[in-house]
């Protein structure tokens, strides 16, 4: 029957509805749906309405009867016109009904940011879109939207996505950021104002690190880091593994917010307002976990090939080093090089552990980088007795 087709996919029965469903064909549509369910017993159904042009009350009754048998039934890819029918009849309150996502092309658009989960493009002077690498990124997008809202409520200036779009074979989040520029671009265009932009950059970082997030609303980065270390048990010498694990385990639990991917492509300036983007890595934890990712962004990823930093951050390797040094100096509030080096080494321990795990998982044949990370950990672990940074005083954010 041309109105109905189905297939089992990832443990669910996808039933595609097309054309018009009304009193003239509703019975035959129902018979076909029943047949598909019998052929795929035990699978919850998803009604894919991408090709559905219209549905009458007779068709809606078919869905109601299906819903009685399948409490997990959901409806996806609904056009605006058909969605209005579901909304007016109360179906959107009874079950999950998702609108179809509009198509968006990023071909020829400038890449203004890149993280572990996706790329950020400027599509026009007012709009940016974060395109996810994962083709099944809807849950990731919803998570990022939710944590961005929480951050905004807690006083962190961030852009909130207002739309989800299809971009080729994957999805993207759309943000309105009128004429906003990432700090990497500003620093490149105005190198004489580097200190000014670093000041703004560190001020926002301090504000983030002074923000409490109670109630388990965000992931605990300490627990994430312990998983990284456990992965390395069979890849490090026993003494090195035990020292690394004990160091991470000894970091006190903390409900202070950290961004998790804080670099100058994820901080933007819009009409003199500093905004934070790329919020999917938002977590709680000690600042050492933040600075481990800061170190990787400006140095770790590019130690063996400096072009990686330039490609990732958008500034030269030398400028990235200055940003790292100045960020740490201003954050700690000291010019003492020994104190700065001590804190940087703590961050490096976590950073190299993360980079080693990442490389083994994604590039197991990259023996040069794997050997480099192991060597650096072997050098650093005897020098480091604790990882945790002292927390900023609670009134530090108010002083900014």
Throw out a few tags for this protein:
400 residues; alpha/beta; Transcription Regulator spoIIAA; Phosphorylase Kinase, domain 1; Aminoglycoside 3'-phosphotransferase, Chain: A, domain 2; five-stranded mixed sheet; 14 helices; 44% helix
Overview of this structure, please?
- The strands form four sheets. Strands 6-10-11-9-8-7 form a six-stranded mixed sheet, with no helix packed on it. The chain has a five-stranded mixed sheet with strand order 1-2-3-4-5.
- The radius of gyration is 25 Å and the shape is elongated.
- It has three domains: about 100 residues, 2-Layer Sandwich (Transcription Regulator spoIIAA); about 70 residues, Phosphorylase Kinase, domain 1 (2-Layer Sandwich); about 200 residues, Aminoglycoside 3'-phosphotransferase, Chain: A, domain 2, CATH 3.90.1200.10.
- It has 14 helices and 16 strands.
- A hairpin with a 2-residue loop joins strand 1 and strand 2.
- Helices cover about 45% and strands about 20% of the residues.
- The mean pLDDT is about 90.
- With about 400 residues, it is α/β, with parallel strands linked by helices.
- The chain starts with a strand and ends in a 20-residue tail after the last helix.
